[in-house]
Fold this protein.
Amino acid sequence: MDPWLIVGLGNPGPQYAGNRHNVGAMVVGELAARDASGAAGSRASFKAHRARASVAQVRLGTRAGGAPGPKAVLAVPSTYMNTSGGPVAGLLKYFGVPLERLVVVHDELDIEAGAIRLKRGGGEGGHNGLRSVTQSLGSKDYLRVRVGIGRPPGRQDPADFVLKDFSKLERANLPFLLDDAADAVEALIEVGLEAAQQRFHAPR
């Protein structure tokens, strides 16, 4: 069975690590912390990959009877957001992952903060990371886990808003948001898009 490739979008370097724009990379970090392939309490470690990304190979969750879940490659591009597509295309080719088993996790301005939405295909909504991925793959037909960060307050430029760290209140809720988004990735893979949408799109 082919593995899944789960890519969390963000910008590299400590100065960007806490930005709203890096929430996709944060979710992939949460999935690494859940790795079911190693010893209890262990965390999957990321290693530099020649496709210009940090990569960890994991098992996602556990199935009934304690069997390990599906194989997955977790990845965070080491390029800037607007050139994320090259690493994604390179990783798909290197690991032999078909397009339908690619999941891209990213921040979404047009979804209320704290909400999670899932879809396959569609537009990029002005998101430079998604635009780069679509251009490099020559297709929009990949799965997305969209992590809502809401619109900026007042007249703040959206480009400035996404490159700012989460506010104090947002940081207090961030662990719950990352947990929900990681759950959504696992559900998407385990039960499929439609069933996962019914679970995460319902009022909570």
About this structure: Residues 168-191 form the longest helix (24 residues).
